[in-house]
UniProtKB/TrEMBL annotation, chains A, B:
UniProtKB keywords: Membrane, Transmembrane, Transmembrane helix
Cellular location(s): Membrane
Membrane topology label: Multi-pass membrane protein
Main location: membrane
Classification lineage: Eukaryota, Viridiplantae, Streptophyta, Embryophyta, Tracheophyta
UniProt-recorded name of the protein: Low affinity sulfate transporter 3-like
GO molecular function, one term: secondary active sulfate transmembrane transporter activity
The organism's place on the tree of life at top rank: Eukaryota
The UniProt record lists the keyword RNA-binding: no
Pfam families: STAS, Sulfate_transp
Length: 687, 687
């Protein structure tokens, strides 16, 4: 039977050169068809009716029917309902959980500390103790520095290293993350809040506003987690975060020049031009070389120890205690030489004692409440993005899974509690988490150790920090910044995805030259434009058969694939056939079919196209404009005498094709595979 | 050889119920592998090294290598260059054309009239003459009506039916389109321009501004065509146009109540609330029942004839001459009864004579030039959208191809020329094109016949229109509106695509309750949000093997497909794995793999998943966030002891996977087909 059809197929216009390959392809196809002996007979010995373009239903092998008679996909309402149910009522699953399992397991679900707490032993605690002490030695100077970056009194930084780490230890799922104030969030807070309230003229109102923003940020974070809105944080792509962090690091570094130069006059703006102008003015006006010398020498000390620590694992301890050592040494030097009388700026009084209650400082009915909520939202997203990026990367290294929604709830609760106890926004720190990991932490207990150490310092040692020079705090912040600028990753992004790099550089330049908010907006905007462009870029690729198989692949990607003369198998380069590209795609396929334009690398002289097979396997969706274009395409092809077949439409697509009556208008030429489409269409054509 | 591997495969955890199917599947896979006898040996008799997760290169069949060693796809710069070259320098191809073909053919390309002109004969002309005269009888009253809708003197409508049709006949490629003023563009012009200049207080400046806008619209249209920017018009989706037209029709209808009621006070706003308020005031204040009776009786006459014409093809002529008959009859009635003295509003003086030159009226240095350009852009897009929608649908019916870019150049040139000869924006009219087609037009000569008839009317008959009542013009406009409201199509859109319907209803409500511009903006906005949502909606579908084949399909779409126990074959429901969805998708696959949640209709009790095959055949693009998520997914799966393989990545995707070193990090487990992936991974696992 196959041999007869081969002879008949000789009528079909094949170019001389490709005859052998085509014959082979047809033979393979015939082989395939032989799996359906009953139906093959009716296909290869066609009746009179079959000469029409309509292929009758009962004459198609069963598989073709499967494509056409797929069950109806769930409708939009059904999908919406499911989506809302999954998003808004995740508790439903939790209650189910409660019934099915023991209460203890469910509690362990809510408080992860109960799960891992059982297996906790003294050996793990020893590791955590060491890691926690290391963390504290880094955290105390950094916290004071970041508080000044946020234009708050130094003790607020220490407060923020007490309550949030405790709460995170109870609620959080990450084992390595180090909680506390971080540079970028501190910059973000001061940059946005000082537009509303002047931190110098009105420090009490400013602090109240920061704490209000912290409350809102916490509420937003907890809400994101509770309502499973974690995707809001995903709007900041990896590339955008890399660019944003680098831009923020440069801005923070430039702002530290104020401390390093020991000037008093400085700009409140955060764009690079204003800051550089302020630095220029300071250098010409009033700066104190003592501050600069002190800061720079300790900065080089810290950087040298870090360099040594990276070179030799044994010296890692040196690099971690370097900041605290610098603080102690510089404070001693200033105290002994009374350098503060020669112009060296010092921290002066740090209020001692534990976190005071700050409920009365919340401005919930003030004139700036709405703005505080807006700032809270931005800060919440940025803080979560940093924490989750940090948490995920370390969880991935250790091979365990981080529950994003649970993390958000933990962050939210700790910030809400923090806002009631004089903390500002805390999150997971890039640099300290890395130190925690390197110091060998086992669980989140290292955070508790750190918090206890900070409490002891707050109670006993704040007075000792009176003579600590501000230049040292600046140099500690500066020393943490290189970790935020990941040139390697930026190069990787450039190498892998040029458009992603555009989002990265957009965020970077936006932060540098405009403001942090604009940098974020640019990054999100560029990311979405990239999504749109990828989805709608018009373009088709020609498919060829891999010799000896029934697999059709892109002839450019697989140069060994062979096009079948007289038949154009085409597939879209995009996932949507919609208003924005359907016309362009229609015209391109028409051009390809009618041979008006030679497209593609393999565009050597071909015979006239007799059949176009449109492989829809990668088409996710089609809209009414796309359907209209397909109909127009079919009409135009029919008027040129070219047949048109569609293969492997997905669930949504075949459903829409049926609804729009397109299936009938192309004579039900919808097939599961390209091979089947070619076989049936050639057979029908010959008949 | 296959039987040994079958025995060995017994170790692999299969649930009892599925054993037979799985055995069959494995047997088929083994059969497949037997096509590569040399490589099969090395695969089924694995060496000691192969027990590691890394499958060595030289032991894979050749096809696997093809996937990994695909040539590099064209880079972004190359694509950008090609895109710009194709877009900006389409003439390059034209010059090539010039070399290859004769000059006459190239001229025919520029002036389509030269192509079809040769085959033109007296028989075709007879048909065109009849169609042209029919068109003119409809066009003259409509043109006057639309000019009043655009708040211009009536003669401008007639002018617009002279120059543009002539030029379109020379340059255009559509055979059926009827060129002239249209309702929606007239409304758009008056709605936007009267915000800048009052048409009643300052008619000369207003007219000048309309003509300036026409010039800009023409320039934009011609530029779209010349620089192949036709996709800008595609931004208005089919659904958006349907909604926009319906909204505009209702707005136009409501505005006609002014003429029908014979009031003088009316609102200049175009939202439904202002207009209804104005109508309410008019009805209570000052309206003339004579106008209303006259308008309504002739409106019912026109609608009745149209109804008859639709019922019986013979009476089609009656419906087409009804508008002109109404004008003549009503003018006679008013003239004989001198009803204008009893409050019936009449057209009064229409300036006779051909189009005057209007170069001096262009306001190219005025204070409103920038705004005129902006309005020109919006009007250009809307006018093109209407003309191309009309042209394409009729071209599709007659089975010929409409060159979008050439159409735009034709429209642009005719509007630029029109702006120099006292015309306002002309385009292809929905209603008159349908009449032209029904009247049997053969070529665009019917437009020339119409234009000549309008010229004769302008020279001879304008004086006769002195007593034409304005209510009749209103009723003629009203009678043309039902054609703009396509309830059927709106229902189809609703049926086929709910999200598309949202764009449709958005445009409709936007036009009704805000303004025409806002309606357009809403439609474009909704359309793009739809694109984003379709591209990034997270979701996976489980694939199963169609029994007796190597084809893997969605188990929900094809209920006969069988999942292989212990192996999860999954595919994305979206085309991009990017920042916005990669995390969600990663968690979903993890949930599916670790069996924490039973998903899908077929979620009956399964054995523990041992292998996840991720079918990438429909993944168009992946960004750096997506790559990071894939790596995290692989790490998490590896820590659970689940293997991970990737199949059929497309050109861009495999390129990025290679660049990001993902291919090596998953042990080069990248395959062409799902079947191969399963075979190789099971074999490696057993070894």
């Amino acid at each position: 039977m196959p041999s007869t059809s081969l002879n008949e197929r000789g009528n079909f216009q094949f170019s001389e050169a490709h005859e052998n390959i085509a014959a082979e392809a047809v033979a393979r196809a015939a082989e395939d068809l032989s799996q359906f002996p009953q139906t093959l007979q009716t296909t290869t010995v066609p009746s009179a009716q079959e000469t029409s373009i309509m292929v009758a239903d009962d004459k198609l092998p069963e598989r073709f029917q499967w494509v056409l008679n797929a069950p109806e996909p769930p409708g939009l309402w059904c999908k919406l309902q499911n989506g809302i149910t999954e998003t808004i009522f995740p508790l439903k699953n939790k209650f189910q959980h409660l019934r099915e399992h023991q209460v203890s397991k469910s509690l362990g679900n809510l408080f992860p500390i109960l799960s891992w707490g059982k297996a906790y032993n003294i050996k793990m605690f020893r590791k955590d103790l060491l890691a926690g002490l290391t963390l504290a030695s880094l955290c105390i100077p950094q916290s004071i520095g970041y508080a000044t970056l946020a234009k708050l009194d130094p003790q607020y930084g220490l407060y923020t290293s007490v309550v949030p780490p405790f709460l995170y230890a109870i609620l959080g799922t990450s084992r390595e993350i180090a909680i506390g104030p971080v540079a970028v969030v501190s910059l973000l807070l001061s940059a946005m809040i000082q537009k509303i309230e002047d931190p110098v003229a009105n420090p009490v109102a400013y602090t109240g506003l920061v704490i209000t923003v912290t409350l809102f940020a916490g509420i937003f974070q907890a809400a994101f987690g509770a309502f499973r809105l974690g995707f809001l944080v995903d709007l900041l792509s990896h590339a955008a975060i890399v660019g944003f962090m680098a831009g923020a690091a440069i801005m923070i570094g430039l702002q530290q020049l104020k401390g390093l130069l020991g000037t008093t006059k400085f700009t409140n703006k955060t764009d690079i031009i204003s800051v550089l102008a302020a630095v220029w003015r300071s250098v010409h006006d009033s700066w104190n070389p003592l501050n600069f010398i002190l800061g720079c020498s300790f900065l080089s000390f810290i950087l040298t120890t870090r360099f040594l620590g990276r070179k030799k694992q044994k010296l890692f301890w040196l690099s971690t205690i370097a900041p605290l050592t610098s603080v102690v040494l510089s404070t001693l030097i200033v105290f002994l030489t009374r350098a503060d009388k020669h112009g060296v700026k010092i921290v002066k009084h740090i209020k001692s004692g534990l976190n005071p209650i700050s409920v009365h400082q919340l401005q919930l009915n003030g004139p700036h409440t709405a703005e505080a909520a807006k700032i809270g939202l931005i800060v919440a997203v940025v803080a979560l993005a940093e924490a989750i990026a940090v948490g995920r990367s370390f969880a991935s290294v250790r091979g365990y899974h981080l529950d994003g929604n649970k993390e958000m709830v933990a962050m939210g609760v700790m910030n809400v509690a923090g806002s009631l106890t004089s903390c500002y926004v805390a999150t997971g720190s890039f640099s300290r988490t890395a130190v925690n990991f390197s110091a060998g932490c086992e669980t989140v207990v290292s955070n508790i150790v750190m918090a206890v150490t900070v409490i002891i310092s707050l109670e006993l040692f704040t007075r000792l920090l009176f003579y600590t020079p501000i230049a040292i705090l600046a140099s500690i912040i500066l020393s943490a910044l290189p970790g935020l600028i990941d040139l390697n990753e930026a190069y990787n992004i450039w190498k892998v995805d040029k458009l992603d790099f555009l989002a990265c550089i957009g965020a970077f330049l936006g932060v540098l030259f405009a403001s942090v908010e604009i940098g974020l907006l640019v990054a999100v905007g560029v990311s979405f434009v990239t999504v749109i462009l990828s989805s709608i870029q018009p373009g088709t690729e020609t498919l060829g058969r891999i010799p000896g198989t029934d697999i059709f692949v892109d002839v450019n990607q697989y140069p060994m694939a062979v096009e079948i003369p007289g038949i154009l198998v085409t597939r879209l380069k995009c996932a949507l056939l919609c208003f924005a590209n359907s016309n362009c795609i229609k015209e391109r396929i028409l051009q390809l079919a009618t041979g008006k334009q030679e497209v593609g690398d393999k565009g050597n002289a071909k015979g006239k196209t007799q059949l176009i097979v449109f492989d829809m396997s990668n088409l996710m969706n089609i809209d009414t404009t796309g359907l209209a274009s397909l109909k127009e395409l079919h009409n135009s092809l029919a008027s040129e005498g070219i047949e048109f077949a569609v293969t492997n439409p997905r669930w949504q697509v075949i459903h829409k094709l049926r609804l729009a009556n397109f299936v009938n208008s192309i004579g039900r030429r919808v097939f599961l595979t390209v091979g089947e489409a070619i076989d049936v269409c050639i057979t029908a054509k010959m008949a």
